[in-house]
Amino acid sequence: MPTRFSTRDVRDHERFSYWREAVCDAYVQLGCECDGQDGFQGDIRLERLSKLSLSRVSGNAHSVYRRGIDIARSSDAFFLLSLQLKKRSRVTQHDRGADLETGDLVLYSSVDPYALDLTDSFEQLVVQVPRGKLLTHLPAADLLTGRRLSGKSAIGKVVGNGIRQIADGLQYSDTPVQDHMQDAIIDLIAAGLASVNDVAYEVSQPEQRLISRTKAFIEANLSDPGLDRNRVAAAMGMSVRRLNEIFSKEETSLAAVIRESRLQQIARDLEDPRLLSQSVSEIAMRWGLNNFQHFSRIFKDRFGCAPRDYRARARLLN
Predict the structure, then answer these.
(1) The HTH araC/xylS-type domain covers which part of the protein (predicted)?
(2) Domain spans of the chain?
(3) What is the pLDDT of residues 257-274, one digit of tens each?
(4) CATH number of 3-194
């Protein structure tokens, strides 16, 4: 049964606050900004299915952004695909910006910061897919975020029209048919993005599997202070240099992945009200960072504030 969020029956001065909460409920934890908040109009029609979610969103001009603090507060990981149905928008992720006109599509990921700038009277169809499901079909999906797939291209027309037609037909289908139709949507997304050929680098499937194994090893050993790039490379059976070459195709490095994974775990713990009795240093040490001065510096570089300030801000938000 579809869920609807609409500002229509909300008092003018409360509409944008309502919209901000509705956007977070429908998608992922986000921030919203709007120049003229009184009288804001917005509408979301959301359908959560077994393998993905579909929504039609429309409204007045505003900006939506996913920040580090939003990512730290969420344990879920998704890819989102926006198909522009009316007017224009801009999606930015990883310093890549996609200016969308009617019919254009763009992919973005909830595990990294992004921003959407939406114009007046816009309308989009948004597909939200768990990361693992799309990565199974398209291992290099992270390299294709923030890149426009033109709705005027042959493949863009096929993907856009196909997604719209399947989305319209889902409500008239029984569960087994719906499952196949959802798979078809994911296949269409993968096929369309695979056609974006302006990427100067490509991760092969064996390399993607190696990256996944490496990240899994890192996640499983974050609490070990001795976890560094040398130990990770040895566990993967190759040199640090070669493994870094592979990770460079995702515009990162072993050291960066280890650091980011630790900081994300620490940020989540600082957000957790059940851990208020534990000091910041205890939490940092639990995730393998024993040098508190170094930890404080890299945390501030990543999240824009000191760990204690981050925790205090999280308490206010909660």
Answers:
(1) 212-313
(2) 3-194, 205-317
(3) 999 989 988 998 898 888
(4) 2.60.120.10
* Spatial distance between the Cα atoms of 214 and 254, rounded to a whole number of angstroms: 9
Long-range own/partner contacts, residues 255-258 (CB < 8 A, 24 or more apart): 255/228, 255/229, 257/214, 257/215, 257/218, 258/218, 258/222, 258/227, 258/228, 258/229, 258/232
Task: Evaluate whether 104 touches 122 at the Cβ level (below 8 Å).
Answer: no
What six digits make up the tokens of 63?
């900006």
Residues 78, 125: contact at Cβ < 8 Å? no
Domain 205-317 has what CATH class? mainly alpha
- CA angle at residue 40 from 8 to 112, to 5 degrees? 110
Q: Token digits for 309?
A: 């300030």
Same fold yes or no, 3-194 and 205-317: no
Q: Are 303 and 67 in contact (CB under 8 A)?
A: no
- Taking only the tens place, the pLDDT of each residue in 101-157 is 999 999 999 888 889 999 989 999 999 998 888 887 887 788 888 889 999 999 999
Cβ neighbours of residue 90 closer than 8 Å, sequence gap 6 or more: 97, 98, 99, 100, 115, 116, 117
Cα gap 63→57, rounded to integer Å: 13
